[in-house]
# Entry
Amino acid sequence: MNRYTRIFDSRGGLYNRATGLAPLARETERRLLVERLSLAPGLRVLDAPAGGGYLADGLRQAEPTLRVVCLEPSATFAAAIDTRHVRVHGSLEAMPFAARSFDRVGSLSGMHHLDDPAGFVRECVRVAAPGAVVALADVGRGTAPAAFLNGAVDRWTETGHDGHFFATGDLGGMLRAAGCRDVSESLCHYTWDFPDLAALVAFCHELFGMVRADATTVETALRDHFALSVDATGAHLPWALVYATGRVD
# Structure
């Protein structure tokens, strides 16, 4: 069993439960990727790894006529994928699709768990049709999210967290090496947003599977890494991902 599947067979259900608790908390994060895919009616779109279908749901909200395929190796994680999408259980490094099958390929925040992220990107490009857009988003090396994930989350989960994060230029470089043109990459800062601090802490407790910690410990860990803020609009967790986009010849 590969590392990704082992992790999310264990905590994919908790991740899905967190999304149910606060389905719009990461909306800005998702929107930033959806916008980079330049959607149009009727396109064939691959979401990989799809998790519980969070990105796929956002894609369909943005353009209801899309044909969205969710590729997810963990059956536990995939259990929450909406039946409007096509659910496929299979390898991320050897995708069960023919070449040129998709008009768009999106990947949100799952690559840092993969044993071979460059191989995954090559597969994303292989299954993309000429003119297709491939858009990736994941955790940047040296950022506060990276320190939190490989620090507090690693300590308080049952599976540990040893994420392979991405230095400046890594994601864009993988896209270029796989044959993409018009490659762009940027580190984007935004917030995860909640109605109150208790909701923020509960979400992170579930999303990251921090089952060895209580709510007070989770809040302390978050405050150690992030400048949490609470105002009249709710509670906010600063976050950041690297977004990279390329077009397939």
